[in-house]
Design a protein that fits this description.
15 strands; globular; 2 domains; alpha/beta; 37% helix; disordered N terminus
């Protein structure tokens, strides 16, 4: 199972049998790890590691936006957050072509040259993703963060060979702080019920959330279509912030970035300046212009139950004459697949006027929507995102709000959005997964 998960992203050539592939993967991983550690030993940056079930990339981008005002910051643009991806990012290498031993030999040679040449960086920001038990242990062999961030715990990757419960996920992700020294910091979202119950020893834990007992207290949270506003108080910080993104729940990814800024000596005014033009990554609740003067909320990057429910609550709060909900299935939920889709469908039924459902498991949405009384003619199920987009295109009316969210695997709802953009030529610039490595998947 571990190899199959890796092979999904990295190919080691057809000539290897599974046992040989595993050996080859281990060798490549070990060499990359040694090279990455060697480079970091030379440049000695402050290491910031980010993990969580939701919001890693958004948090990373916010950290970078804040810290780049005063520091030379290095961070990956894409999802380089695995035991292979992290060292590749540190070594300025890409994984676009890894189809043979020769390809990997070229990558390793260029990585060696990268270490030899050196690179100045004050801060390194790394996403640390885990899909199964043991992943975090492998990542902390590469870096042990000076500042570790845990954004959330949710029921992702619940499947055989992965995790069986949120408690298992919590145990794995808190491993990010396992090797930290006492003068390091572990920033945790105390509004998350699973993290709230976690007892941490070792490094200095900085909790953030609405409770007044937290080291950083978040208050006065408001939001509208122009952005969100909130106040953060803790240590030397006591400041109001305004960020031009949708969703008040995004304080869970913005506040740890703000705390990083405070820890590294930035003032509240400097931190606000870094966030003044901040945008969420592609496919994460971005507003896009659609056909017929419609507005698209593009959340096509991925989906979990918690993120889907939060996003639907946001859609419910926004004014629009008609709301179209394009919901893709949610993957990696294991035994919770049916109940999670049922819960999302019940909330969606209270919000939407037209429903476009994509993916085999999205059939559960359809059945539940009809069961709770949604008009049959407003519910449409598809297996293909592009087909769904073509169907939706002539149905969109002036002023419609079109919400799009679903998992990546087998869904790819960015293909639906491409069919309904006001200017289809902008798709490659505004949508997620538009690189050449995605075109034939």
């Amino acid at each position: 199972m571990a190899f199959q998960l890796l092979e999904k992203h990295y190919s080691f050539g057809e000539c290897y049998q599974p046992s040989m592939k595993t050996i080859f993967r281990s060798i490549i991983s070990g060499i990359l790890r040694l090279l990455a550690k060697s480079k970091l030993a030379k440049s000695k940056p402050t290491l910031i590691g980010i993990t969580g079930s939701i919001g890693k990339t958004s948090t990373k981008d916010a950290v970078v936006a804040i810290l780049r005002q005063k520091f030379q910051v290095k961070a990956a643009d894409g999802g380089y957050n695995t035991e292979i991806g992290v060292p590749l990012m540190i070594l300025n290498q890409r994984s676009d072509n890894t189809s043979s031993v020769a390809s990997w030999a070229r990558i390793l040679w260029k990585a060696f040259l990268d270490v030899s040449q050196g690179e100045h960086m004050d801060v390194l920001v790394v996403e640390m993703g885990v899909d199964k038990p043991g992943d975090m242990r492998e990542l902390t062999k590469i870096i042990s963060p000076d500042i570790a961030i845990l954004t959330s715990i949710a029921a992702n990757h619940i499947a055989p060979g992965q995790f069986s419960s949120e408690q298992d996920i919590l145990r794995e992700k808190t491993g990010i702080a396992a090797l930290q020294k006492k003068n390091n910091y572990f920033i945790t979202n105390n509004d998350n019920p699973w993290i709230f119950s976690y007892v941490h020893t070792g490094s200095t834990r900085l909790r953030y959330g609405e409770d007044g007992a937290n080291e950083f207290v978040v208050s006065n949270v408001t939001g509208n279509v122009q952005g969100i506003s909130f106040h953060v108080k803790g240590r030397s910080l006591d400041h109001d912030f305004r960020v031009p993104i949708l969703g008040t729940y995004h304080t869970s990814v913005l506040v740890p970035a703000i705390i990083c800024g405070e820890l590294l000596g930035l003032t509240g005014e400097e931190i606000q300046k870094g966030l003044a033009d901040f945008q969420l990554p592609k496919g994460r609740l971005r507003l896009l212009p659609g056909v017929h003067n419609s507005t698209i909320i593009d959340s096509s990057y991925n989906a979990s139950k918690a993120a889907m429910l939060h996003a639907l609550e946001l859609v419910d709060s926004l004014p629009a004459p008609r709301k179209i909900l394009c919901l893709g299935q949610m993957n990696e939920l294991g035994e919770r697949t049916e109940e999670s889709h049922l819960e999302v469908a019940r909330l969606a039924a209270q919000i939407g006027n037209l429903f476009i459902l994509v993916g085999p498991d999205a059939k559960i949405y359809e059945q539940e929507l009809l069961r709770v009384g949604v008009e049959k003619g407003t519910v449409h199920h598809f297996l293909d995102s592009q087909e769904a987009g073509k169907f939706l295109l002539p149905l969109i009316q002036d002023g419609d709000l079109v919400f799009v969210k679903g998992s990546q695997g087998g869904v790819r709802l960015e293909r639906l959005i491409a069919e309904i953009l006001a200017d289809p030529a902008t798709a490659k610039d505004v949508l997620v997964r538009q690189g050449p490595e995605w075109q034939n998947r």
